[in-house]
Amino acid sequence: MRHSAYLTHTFVAVAIAAAVVPAHALDGRVVAVLDGDTITVLDADHLQHRIRIAAIDAPEKRQPFGNAAKESLSRLAYGRQAVARCKKQRDRYEREVCAVFVENRDVGLEQIRSGLAWWYRDYAREQPVDERASYESAEAAAKDAHRGLWREEHPTPPWVWRKQMRSGQAAPT
């Protein structure tokens, strides 16, 4: 019985560590900004990596603040060296999902602070606890200060907007 309990505790510890430790990390230069939460990084081997910034969701290009979100991410990252800490291999669009850091700044967190991205709570469990708290706090502060998309009384989250577009419930803006 004692051996079984030890194995259970060991399994749980390994599972927790795996959830927090990135699957892989990559360094490179940001060579493209596709929208407010997607970039392309060119690594030292001249391989391009399309990266979806983890734990945020920025307005789509045709949504209000979509262009502002892309411009903000461009100012933060374009042409700069970045470190991407990737937690899972690929999303359904074949992008690597990673926390991205430029000059030791978490660009996802900066997008939220600027009011140009939502904290994507559906994926909060994939974040370390302290990072979750930072993202939640940054979103609340942006909302309270009416920064970026929070200037609107009821901004439409991108995941809702995409669903409406697929079902034909809303006209593109």
Q: What would you say this structure looks like, in words?
A:
With 173 residues, this protein is of the alpha+beta class. Helices cover 37% and strands 26% of the residues. The strands form 2 sheets. It has a 5-stranded mixed barrel. About 10% of the residues have low confidence.
Give a quick summary of the entry:
By secondary structure, the protein is α+β, with helices and mostly antiparallel strands.
Give keywords:
173 residues; alpha+beta; OB fold (Dihydrolipoamide Acetyltransferase, E2P)
What's the architecture, going by CATH? Beta Barrel
**CATH fold descriptor:** OB fold (Dihydrolipoamide Acetyltransferase, E2P)
Helix content: 25-40%
**Would you count the extended β strands for me?**
8
Oligomer: single chain
How is the secondary structure organized here?
Blueprint lengths: L1 H19 L3 E12 L2 E6 L4 E6 L2 E2 L8 H12 L3 E8 L7 E7 L2 E2 H7 L4 E2 L9 H16 L13 H10 L6
Helix pairs in contact: 3-4
